[in-house]
Structure formats: structure tokens, C-alpha cells
Specification:
With 478 residues, this protein is an alpha/beta fold. The protein folds into two domains: 179 residues, Rossmann fold, CATH 3.40.50.300; 288 residues, no CATH class. Helix content is 52%, strand content 14%. It contains 21 helices and 13 strands. It has an eight-stranded mixed beta sheet with strand order 7-6-8-9-10-11-13-12, with helices on both faces. Helix 14 crosses helix 18. The termini are far apart. The model has no long low-confidence stretch (mean pLDDT 92).
Length: 478
């Protein structure tokens, strides 16, 4: 047995509480509020400690910087010395294990078993393992599958920043529950940044009214009824917080930095890690190809129009297949959200896809590096579209309840939300006052239940056109 690994695990048992407290609190020492993902994970752990056998393997995938380590830290602090003594709850980061110790997850598990002094098969007390950055060990799935099969007294919560590699193993899929962690919504941002909590059931009611009404008139009436609650919430919001949210507020770690330069530098380093580690793991690109990925991202951040692969082959010294592979891997790594053109399978293959950044903070940093932030209104419009794509991805696409496309024709709408195969909504989003022209243009070609324009305009029903104008403050609460 590697003595250095045993010493590392012993140190983790002794020091994790102090170390993880720093991840779970702000600069003033106040503990961060709990996000919804934590509440669900907490329930899984409580059920396990009550004796329920399943689920006892929970995987938390998500883009780097979205708060996975904080969720694990909160889980540790919630249960250590309360439900479990420090010996029976272990936090490890496989990033550290591999890069500092040159060891493996298997080595850590074996060292922990030796420290416990009993085989996992003969455990009498429950064990909680919190494993961060699990993707750094290529054999992580096999190691945890073996542990899962050896003992029903072990519950594993593991996180990783490569969603596809975490979710592609058939042994994992059959045994584990996935709790994907996304960049923060506006309400999560307000909760973490201002300690402002959303009004009970308001998100659910707004979502039902906006997307699941029979027509624009009914949606308008339902939103009108919710207006007092919306106004009550926004009365407590700092007027500059919407812009801060669009700029950096989707990434919780960015709120810890005292100045903008440090935030930008940290996000830029995060991008480099994604490209050099996560993307390399998924795509196996050459070093030369990897060097062009960031340049491709710069081009995407700056471009207002849709970028076809053909256009990019004229800008970058890469062939069509390589560029398509890069887009595929960037999407799988959850740096980008892909939205295909609306229509038949033929249309979707012949028309270029639109790509949005999973967090607008990435776009902002790329624009700041190139010096191409443009006008405030133009920049804010691009960031807002990224937020909208994230919203649809989180609320509809990943849960599998809707498809998302765009109208590729000239003057078409930003989004077409296809819910359950029976409902279609045409949606346009923008800053300032926005006309309904693009939504109407798409609705003239595509049968839709109604159209939605999200902007700075007040709540308004265009009854004859079956279009609803929704203020941005309503949308941000969903």
C-alpha cells in the first residue's frame, strides 16, 4: 500500500471540515444558501441513512465553475458530526490525487478501506464518499461500480466536468442517478449574491402560464394574475443586478472575486482547462487543432450572424470534418448549446445550426480579450440570448419535455419551442423595445399555439396576432 496515499486520506479525514467550510461560505464567513440541486442530493443522502438501498450512487455533471465543489462541500458539512462521524464521511478531489500524488481513485478506495480497518463488504455503519473531479481517473466508472456492488452500506456522490464521459458508461447508467448542475439562474444568483429568495411556487406558476396556455390571451390573463408577486420580488432587486447577472452572475465562483479583472482572468483560465483537458479527453484532437479551438470561440463570440462550417473553413486552416468535430465536442463538453434549424431532417442537415454559450460569462470574456465588446445594447443582446438558450436547455431540453429549433429563413424568430410533439411556441428575445415582426413572420409559415416576445416592453397582449409581449423581469424568474 502506498504510504503517501494513506497519509493523504488520513489528512482528508482530519482536515476536510475546515477546508470545505471555505468553499461553502462567502468572504464574510457567511454560509452560502443552498441551491435546488443540493436539496435533491440532500434527500438522497437522508434516504440512504434511513436505510433505503437505492439510489446510493449520485453523479453531478456540469461545466467547470458552476459550483459542483460547493455542492459537495455543503453535503459534507450538512452531515459530518451530525449524522456521520468524520471517519465515515470522506471528501477527495481526484485532480489532487492524480496530479499531486500520481495515484488513482482505486488507490484512495483501498487506502480508505485500510484506515477503516474493515472490508466494505463487512461494514456495519454507513459510509458517505464525496468524490470531486472524478473524470481525472479514466477507470473511475469501473472502480465505483465495483465498490457499489461490494457494499450497500456505501453512498457515493461524485462530480465531474465532462458530462458525456460521465454519462456514457452502460454500467453507470444502470446504477447511478444524475443530478446535472447548470450555470445559475437569475433567482439562484439573487439567492447567493443578495440572500433574496424567490416567492414560493412563483417560478412554477410563471412557467405554466407562459408556456402551457392554450393561446396568447389565456397566457396574458394568467400572467396578469401573477403580476403582484412579480412586482413584489423585483421591488427588492438592485437595479444593476440584471447586468451583473448577464455579465458574470451565472458562475457562482465569479461572485467571490473583488474586481472584474480577476473574474475575467479566472474565466479565461477555466476556458483553457476545458480545452486542454476536457475537450482533449472527449475528442483526441492534435495539439495543433487544440490551438485553434480558442480562436474558433473568439470568432463565435464576435459574430452576430449564423456561422456555417463552410465560412469557418475559409477563416481557419481546418477542414470541414475537423470543425464539425470541434463543434460536436464543445457541445458535449457543455460549453455550447446547439440549436438546429426548424423543419424536416433534410432542413436540419442542410441549414447551419446556431450555437449559444452555456454561460454568457464565457462570451463576455472572449469579447473583452478581443476588444470587441461593441455597444452596450449589442453586447447585452448577445448575452441575453445565451441566457435564454440556457433557460430552454435547463427547463425543457435536458428533462426531455421539448425540442428547440430556430427559424432559418430571413427575418425568422430566435427560437421555436416544440413541447411534447403537440405544441409549438415561437419566441423572440431582445433588449430594449422589440417589435413582434420576427415572431409574426415565423408564425405565418409555421403553425404555432402562440408567439412570445420577451423584451423591455410592458406585459401586453396582441390579440389579433395571437402574440404575447412579456417583460424580461417575468422571464428571468422562471
Amino acid at each position: 500500500m502506498n504510504e503517501a496515499v494513506i497519509a493523504y486520506v488520513q489528512n482528508q479525514i482530519a482536515q476536510s471540515k475546515a477546508r470545505l467550510t471555505a468553499y461553502a461560505q462567502n468572504s464574510t464567513g457567511k454560509l452560502y444558501p443552498k441551491r435546488n440541486a443540493f436539496i435533491r442530493i440532500e434527500k438522497y443522502i437522508k434516504d440512504f441513512l434511513k436505510g433505503e438501498e437505492e439510489p446510493r450512487w449520485i453523479i453531478v455533471p456540469g461545466l467547470r465553475g458552476v459550483g459542483k465543489t460547493t455542492i459537495l462541500a455543503q453535503s459534507y458539512l450538512e452531515f459530518v458530526d451530525i449524522s456521520l462521524d468524520s471517519l465515515h464521511i470522506l471528501y477527495v478531489s481526484i485532480d489532487e490525487v492524480k496530479n499531486i500524488l500520481n495515484a488513482t481513485l482505486k488507490d484512495v478506495i483501498e487506502a480508505y478501506e485500510q484506515i477503516l480497518g474493515v472490508s466494505f463488504e463487512k461494514l456495519e455503519k454507513p459510509i458517505l464518499l464525496l468524490i470531486d473531479e472524478v473524470q481525472y481517473d479514466e477507470q473511475w466508472a469501473a472502480v465505483l461500480k465495483s465498490l457499489y456492488d461490494r457494499s450497500k452500506k456505501v453512498c457515493v456522490i461524485c462530480s465531474g466536468s465532462s458530462a458525456v464521459s460521465l454519462q456514457s458508461n452502460p454500467d453507470v447508467i444502470r446504477r447511478a442517478v444524475f443530478e446535472k448542475l447548470y450555470p445559475m439562474s437569475f433567482c439562484e444568483f439573487q439567492m447567493i449574491h443578495r440572500n433574496l429568495y424567490q416567492i414560493k411556487d412563483l417560478k412554477k406558476d410563471l412557467k405554466q402560464a407562459l408556456y402551457f396556455s392554450n393561446n396568447a390571451e389565456e397566457a396574458h390573463a394568467r400572467l396578469k394574475l401573477l403580476q403582484p408577486k412579480v412586482l413584489s420580488y423585483w421591488a427588492k432587486v438592485d437595479k444593476f443586478d440584471v447586468q451583473k447577472y448577464l455579465d458574470i452572475g451565472t458562475l457562482p465562483f465569479a461572485l467571490r472575486h473583488p474586481n472584474q479583472a480577476q473574474v475575467y482572468e479566472s474565466i479565461n483560465l477555466l476556458l483553457d482547462k476545458i480545452i486542454l483537458h476536457d475537450i482533449q479527453t472527449l475528442g483526441k484532437f492534435s495539439a495543433e487543432t487544440l490551438s485553434y479551438i480558442k480562436r474558433l470561440l473568439y470568432i463565435m463570440a464576435e459574430t452576430v450572424d449564423i456561422l456555417s462550417i463552410e465560412k469557418l473553413t475559409k477563416i481557419l486552416p481546418l477542414d470541414r470534418l475537423t470543425i464539425a468535430s470541434i463543434f460536436d465536442v464543445l457541445t458535449k463538453a457543455e460549453m455550447l448549446i446547439k440549436v438546429q434549424a426548424h423543419g424536416s431532417n433534410m432542413s436540419r442537415t442542410t441549414q447551419p445550426a446556431k450555437y449559444y454559450f452555456m454561460t454568457p460569462a464565457i462570451r463576455l470574456v472572449l469579447l473583452s480579450i478581443t476588444g470587441s465588446v461593441g455597444t452596450t445594447l449589442t453586447r447585452q443582446g448577445r448575452l441575453l440570448e445565451d441566457v435564454a438558450a440556457l433557460h430552454f436547455y435547463r427547463e425543457f431540453i435536458v428533462p426531455g419535455v421539448a425540442g428547440l429549433t430556430y427559424d432559418a429563413s430571413s427575418g425568422g424568430a430566435d427560437f421555436i419551442l416544440e413541447v411534447g410533439g403537440s405544441r409549438q411556441l415561437t419566441i423572440e428575445i431582445g433588449t430594449g423595445s422589440k417589435s413582434s415582426t420576427q415572431v409574426k413572420s415565423t408564425m405565418d409559415k409555421i403553425k404555432c399555439n402562440y408567439g412570445i416576445v420577451i423584451s423591455s416592453d410592458p406585459l401586453l397582449l396582441l390579440k389579433e396576432e395571437n402574440i404575447l409581449k412579456v417583460p424580461l423581469p417575468y422571464f428571468l424568474l422562471i
